[in-house]
Write a structure and sequence with these properties.
heterotrimer, A mainly alpha (311), B mainly alpha (287), C alpha/beta (251), A: 311 residues, mainly alpha, MetI-like fold, 2 domains, 12 helices, 2 strands, 74% helix, flat, B: 287 residues, 73% helix
Amino acid sequence: MEKGIVSILGHRKTKSTVEKAASVIFTCCAVVSIVAVISITGYMFISGTPAIFKVGITEILFSQVWSPTASNPQFGILNIILTSIVGVFLAICIGVPIGILTAVNLAEIANPKVRKIVKSAVELLAGIPSVVYGLLGILIICPLMYQLELLIFANSTTHQFTGGSNLISAILVLTIMILPTLINITETALNTVPDDYRKSSLALGASQIQTIFKVVLPAAKNGIMSAIVLGVGRAIGEAMAILLVAGNSVNVPLPFNSVRFLTTGIVSEMGYAAGLHREVLFTIGLVLFVFIIAINLILTFILKGGNQDGK
Amino acid sequence: MENSIFDKKSRLSDKVLYSLIQLCTLFSVVLLVVIIGYICYRGIPDFSFSYLINTPSIINDTIGILPNIINTLYMIVLTLLIACPIGIGGAIYLNEYATNKKFVSVISFTTEVLAGIPSIIYGLFGMLFFGGVLKLSYSILTGALTLAIMILPIISRNTQVALEAVPKSYREAALGIGATKWYMIRTVLLPSAIPGILTGIILSMGRIIAESAALLFTAGSAHILPVGLFDHLFMSGGTLTIELYLCMSEGNFQEAFVIAFILIIIVLALNFTAKWISKKFDVNKVV
Amino acid sequence: MSIKIQAKDLNLYYGEKHALKNVNLDIEENKITAFIGPSGCGKSTFLKTLNRMNDYVKNIKITGNVSLDEEDIYDSRVDTTILRKKVGMVFQQPNPFPMSIYDNVAYGPRIHGIKNKKQLDEIVEKSLKAAALYDEVADRLHTSALGLSGGQQQRLCIARCLAVEPDVILLDEPTSALDPISTLKIEELLMELKEKYTIAIVTHNMQQASRIADYTAFFLVGEMVEYGKTKDLFSLPKDKRTEDYITGRFG
């Protein structure tokens, strides 16, 4: 029998078409994320800037008066910006210690059974929809805060009672919402601290708690900063959970004032806003977007800076 | 010499910190128990299967959330149909085809950025672009396209991790017997990576079901039953979370808790499934 | 000469594995005692029983007795933080904390309650000088310790250990990760330190043991086979197994 020589050239045309097509398709898929980021950034700026020119950036950013539907409409969002800053700041102040201590327990102290239970609990908490948190906020946290409000302002003649829908209720809800993020990322950071440090510290006569607070936590500084920044990002972008809990009046951010956040401000009026009013809402969206970018840039710089000294 | 090792030191600060640590940990667990407990306490009594199969109608005097359930299902399926090919394709490119390191780092960066953008910004973008520019207005398709971008990082990263876990030797073996690249990916890599990809899908499902801010101004809040299977895509459709929000703002807490109860059950189920897959197939989750 | 640490009928189990078998050993004060033997013979494990660093290993069981200054260190009344102040340890891999040189050395004293800055300054200088490192780092005490070379880092770890003023210093293969010159420097250092401290050193390098140790113990598969003055052990080993190891027939 004659064996023909098998050509290694093969059917180059059809095979390479399929291969080429596959390669192109996959490249396009990867590019989608770049296109998405550019588009989102673009549209935020395109939709948000018209109102800046029409109303003027000083009025929008620095005026405290928000009356978009009045006969002489005013679009000052200073109170709204301050509320977001103060609210997120306080939520972080309360949440970070709780989150770090819980993460310390998970990473350093707890036995495997406890670890498993707590980690599962934290994962489930992370998966609960924001509106559900809002629901429980209205029905559990707000009444409690109302009781507190009645107590504190019992003799006040000037205080506008909020019925519990106020800044402090919103802060409590935000704190609970950012806990899973804070706990998970801090725990990961603690787990990457080399065991050698713990051993050395213990061998010098330090107790476990001393080792954790004087060696492990400082060594995990960068990771903890990431956790905090991600927590801030989550808190500042939260809308639905605090929508019905925060009150919705545009006020100075005091604990028992009914307030509006950047996010809740957009959601509460977008449904019916028209014309210039609507355009200003997009400007609020742009302000929020810029905040997020700024926070993320800060994170990148902190991490880069941290990597230069020490390690 | 002097000090005996027998005198036990009692450090007050140690004891205080230890107690605080236990307290904080307890807080998380108690929180979860209270949340689930309260929802069950208020949701179960009013829960009946008629809710699940009825449509709200003034004419027939019925209340129900069937349309919302259907809308949620539409949303999940549609979003995944759009996002999975793109996410998986992108991950394949990054892991198997990419050569330019700078390009890869740019894509990784943008994926990180997408993961960090809050849902309300997605909502605004979706409303402007898909709803406005593409003229889809309030519709399930608008919502799905918006959510698809949102879950892209989850699918992409989980697929990447899954592909990276496949040993290099598999690739070399396949290419060594003359398989072409796409053929090798299709027959060797992807099957091995399926558990990881599946985990990514389940995590995305959790995200889709829990989403509300991004859907409010894209998919709208209607609760009508679909007339045509395909036409429904272009109609406004409120998912379960949107309906929950509406109930809350109207003060209808009875229905709200029924929906919350259903949502909790779904979240628990998805969580267990993801864990089961992770454990059974030894997957590294990337949330 | 007095006995600083005494191990009596010491047995250690990692779960099912019998890692240390009936070890009886006296460590003399102000002398250098070396533990030698092939890999896995239990010498490091034994070292770690002397400051209870084995406590952190799961499934570990210890029977028998280890006493420091005639106090049983496994007694339930013992506070391990005080024990480890008296018995310090230097590990194989130099592992300074990611802090400044100053903070590394001051860590121990701070942990044990010393807050006064002047006191800490003195302790840091004294310890760095005792570890023969001061001259090299005096002008950069507040820079990161991670910028030092391997040999310097290990001397820093020794300084860190000296700063808590221990009675005993345990060293677990302290020079195996270092170059020959740094190794020699540290060996010289240990010879100086033995005048004030009791030193126990695990080494896989027999030459090192014969250079610096006053006493040497040979471990094999968890057993302490032979123990005696270094000169005697190396020139006239009493046990055939010791002789085989020393002449290089195995290990």
